[in-house]
Amino acid sequence: MRLHESTLDPLDAVHDHTLPAGEPYLLAIEKGQTLRIVDLEGNQAVDVIFYNRDEPAEHYSATDTMLRQGGIYLTTGSVLVSSEGRPMLTIVADTCGRHDTLGGACAAESNTVRYALQKKFMHSCRDNYLLALQHADIGLGKRDLVPNVNFFMNVPVTPEGGLQFADGVSAPGKYVELRAEMNLLMLVSNCPQLNNPCNAYNPTPARFLLWNAA
Predict the structure, then answer these.
(1) Which residue in 4, 25, 123, 163 is a FRET match for 138, CA 20 to 30 A apart?
(2) Dist CA 78 CA 214 (whole Å)
(3) Where residue 106 falls among pLDDT bands split at 50, 70, 90?
(4) What is the DSSP string of 109-172?
(5) Total-model pTM
(6) HSE of 159 in the Cβ direction (CA atoms, 13 Å)?
């Protein structure tokens, strides 16, 4: 964990949006802008995929990101890398200290495997992604959904190589801040998962702020 606080003032933000629990969101970000994602009530997973806004076929790559930094967790100093091997964002501040990019986004299929057959049709992050893209009508769809970042989520790897969806290490008001290294689209599912104890079975809102480059 590399904890680092920001000096940016929310009053100077050019964009400030609170996303309700369980909802999707799509936001355009300019190169050089700084994005802050705030875990308002604590231990809420914010599932995010980034795309190059100028060439949307170029997207966030979990594998390239982990290989480039030589580690599986994201925190201050981590560079999020694209499918073309280019920097997309750099984490410049982080008061949580650990973010996951292994566990993926919940879907009907994973709800069935992890929990129970009758959970299949519960709302999921994958559904949120598809709803946001359908409403935006920007030429992105199901084939463009790739492994994502789970901000504020704690997914340790066991000595045997398994994944544990553990209790979060975040808390109310914790945030992560990222500087955009290219023009971006940010696709968000403020995770609606009701079956995982890591959020006390209670999805909560998240806040998104943007600052222009100084």
Answers:
(1) 123
(2) 21
(3) confident
(4) HHHHHHT-GGGTTS--HHHHHHHHHHHHTSS--GGG----EEET---PBPTTS-B--PPP---T
(5) 0.91
(6) 0
